[in-house]
Amino acid sequence: MLLDNAFRPAAFWFWHYLPGEDECRESLRDARAAGLGCVMVQTRLSFPRAEYLSSAYLERCRFVSAEARALGLDLEIYDEYNWMSGHGGGRTVQGADHLRERHLFWCRAPLRQGRASFSITGIRSDFLGFLGQEGADWCYETGVPRWSDWTVVGLVREDGQPFQAEAVDLVADESGCRVELGAPGLPEGGEVTLLVAARCATSRLVNYLLPETARRFAERVYAPLLEAMPDAESFFFDHPYAGFYTWNEQCGSVGNSILWDDSLLADGVTLQQLASLAAGDSPEHCRARVLFFRRYATLMHRAFFGTLRSWCDMRGKGLTGHEILPHVGAWALRGGLKGFDPRVMPGTDYFGFDRFRTATTVDAADFHSQLSVLMGDSIARANGRSRCTVEQYATGREAGRPSLKGQWDLSLDRLRMQCIGHILNGARRVLLHALYLPGVTAFEPAGDFEPLFDFPPGFNMQPWWRYMPLLSDYLARLSVFLEDGHPVRTVGLVYPLADLWASDTAPASAEQFGQWAQALDAAGCAFAVVDESQFSTTITFAEEIDTLILPGPGWLEQASSLEQLKRFAARPGCRLLSGGPVAISAVHGGGERSWASGLPVQAVAVGDIPQTAENLASGQTGARAMFVKTSDNATRITWHRIKPGHDRFAVFNTATHWGTLDIPPAPHARHVRLWCLESGTWLAECHVPAQTGATLALRPHDVMCLDVMSPIPPAGSGKSPVPPLPLLARPPAVTDAGRQVVPLPDGWGFVVPEQPSRPVSTACALEEQGIILPEGMGQYTLTFTPPPLPEGCVWYLVVPEVSGVLDCRMNGQTCGVSPGAYGAFAVPEDTGPVTLVFDLRTNAARRFYPEDYLAGERSGLTAVPYLEAWPLRPVVMLQPDRAGAV
User: Fold this and answer.
1) pLDDT of residue 573
2) Residue 160: which residues within 8 A CB-CB, separation 6 or more?
3) Closest residue by Cα to residue 524 from 632, 664, 661
């Protein structure tokens, strides 16, 4: 299996200043040595905006392109200054004011004696407030939004009908407007909705509704970047959005102003639909909002991303990247990023949006399980591709810090566990956010923005970075192993797009979706996210899916979708579930509304969702049990079907203790191969006879990869029917008779660089003993003499608990590296004393964080290591389905 760059981790490469050629060369060589496959230059907020795309900047990009090519390192072109793709650091709107963001605002007022008074005041955007004034200076030419070109778009009566007032008096300035109207023929006290648009005259952010915006962005940003980096594989966009504005008189069910262009009215948007943005949750208003957002999203995505995709296609380049994902870091569809309404900017219709990309990308926040990758893989497969790139970034939120402060205390083990989870869930590669320039520690920015606290860590500045090559290779091999075939997922969780469009800013379906998704994941139940487009006219989702879950949606777009759901439920063995009673309306196909009468849905109380997920997982376990099974809840299994009779399993033991994996007896013989993630070789092959099972040992925090073919390949296929079984040391079970353990509690020393050695306990963290690692590095030492070795065994030095990376040497020989949490190292068979050295590398927290951020920091060994005699056993222990032993 070839470890192509496409499977290796990639990284954003932050430029907080313009680096010199030597610094670029050093950084690129370091990235390649770390096992990365791709880098993307990304200028950040402290980079002088005037120097972005300057001749010096582009010349440095040319140098980077040539160096990367020579190193065999791929490049992708990050398409923006900082982020929010489209503005090009202000170059898109420079000399083209009509491309600046233009918004529609609304308010309501009662008629009194044939007149009504309206005002739009206090317009603000708080979403980027965490960046302070420098964030405002980035987005606005004067550091503040100033509004112009105010126009009345329309007036809508309380009954939803547009009307023309006899007199409209509009008075506006750069902060807002007042409107007085006269309509003597309308009923007294009736409410009128005012729709008014304005352009932000100082904004560098753009109007995504205009194809000209994308054409100018491509001309001013894509073209010079591609000329400088012609070997780049693709362009990468990031978080395309304009200001998420609110105002004092805001009302209705939509949380921010929408982008505006008068062409919307010519493209099928009606004033009644626009007035629904200012209205409540009546069926008529919900239906109107779905109609509006469908048209709005389609036009916006086509105008901007369709134009960019055409530009890239003409030049043979890919287009990837991701929109803003409000579920990032969470399971609920609105449970991640807060403080904005995602419907008003590109996104929300993730399945439709993805059709403009050549590869799917999502982002993930912090280091815990979340929806992003499962959603990304589902989106890709729905659009005829597979898997995705996941951008992994860190915020301070997980540790109770401001977001920008990030996680300099991130361990290699935590990163490793997160990345493994991403790949098992459907990521092809992980995109690290980010690498820093080596000179950033000495860089003094002109403003207040602190480059060292730009969502750290800078991964390459962590003490454990020298061991990144091991992790990069491991992840790439795991990704290659899972590239073929498709994941076997029997549960589909419906993405409630129409309901998200119809509802207010906190739809119940978004929360219930998250409850189902999290429960399914916790139960180990493999599921796909299913879009309505996959069953609106015919069912196109994976054939293995036998359960569809409707997460409480009130709306679907098509009445035909309801009919397809009925047909699905009528299939043998298939069913529909929902969290609570079902009352679904369809926007199209049944008059004004089409209620889901007769839909055979099993209602599940919200409190019963976790148990239902466990039951669904048990069903998958039963189907999978003919291949593999485990009794440990800490073990996660990813199952890919290559073709009938050929399956692959990646079995992840997330526990810090050894586990077992059983291949149960079967009526037919099987051919089993083990793919080694450390070496990238087939570690063992085994013929498992009919009516015979096999047992395999699972290392803590590790993945075992099995390739299972049944029946066995025919003669002449080139595969030996009974290949040899290599002997390796396997850990004894706790119940093994004669288990020999020798604790090593005494005689340990510890050395902090440039300090003398001192005695140390291995039963508690270094900080508890007053030992501080300013640079995150130190060294344990011990001399011990192993007792006589039991026959047929080998001594292993077991580290049951550790915080940090351990690089083990015994008698001068390298014995392996443990990324953290647990380690086990084979002891040399030499007789006599053993000199042990553990090089410990933790993190850069003490180098960069103030003391109050370091409370609870625990480094080093936290439980006494011990020697354990492991018997030499076959990798695969065959177990016949009868008394006796093989």
Assistant:
1) 94
2) 272, 275, 284, 288
3) 632
Mean pLDDT score of the chain:
92
- Token output for 58: 């582009």
Could you tell me which residues are beta bridge partners of residue 78?
Answer: 236
What pLDDT sits at residue 882? 36
Q: Which amino acid is residue 340, in one-letter code?
A: F
Residue with tokens 């579930």: 577
Give yes or no for a contact between 346 and 295, defined as CB atoms under 8 angstroms apart.
Answer: no
State the SS3 of 662-673: EECCCCCCEEEE
Asked if residue 400 lies in contact with residue 848, where contact means CB atoms within 8 angstroms, the answer is no
Pair type for strands 601-603 and 575-578: parallel
Can you tell me whether residue 398 is helix, strand or coil? helix
Rounded Cα distance, 209 and 99, in Å: 9
Query: Angle at CA 62, nearest 5°, toward 59 and 68?
Result: 145
The first and second tokens of residue 848, run together, are 């960069």
The count of other CB atoms within 10 Å of the CB of residue 88 is 25
- Beta bridge pairs of residue 585: 555, 595
What residues have CB less than 8 Å from 298, skipping those under 6 apart? 352
The Cα–Cα gap between 518 and 694 comes to: 32
- Calculate the alpha carbon distances from 82 to 44, 126, 344, 808 in Å: 4, 18, 21, 41
Residue 492 in contact with residue 532, Cβ under 8 Å?
no
Average pLDDT on 768-795 reads: 94
Q: What percent of the chain has pLDDT over 90?
A: 80
384 contact partners, CB below 8 Å, separation of at least 6: none
- Looking from the CA of 155 toward its CB, the CA atoms found within 13 Å total 24
Residue 881, pLDDT > 50, answer: no
Confidence of residue 712 (pLDDT cuts 50, 70, 90): low
E runs forming strands in 495-609: 527-530, 547-550, 555-558, 575-578, 585-588, 594-595, 601-603
Least-confidence region, from 30-44, 690-704, 805-819: 690-704
**Beta carbons of 715 and 685 less than 8 angstroms apart:** no
Q: How far apart are the first and last CA of the chain?
A: 32
pLDDT at residue 620 in the model? 84
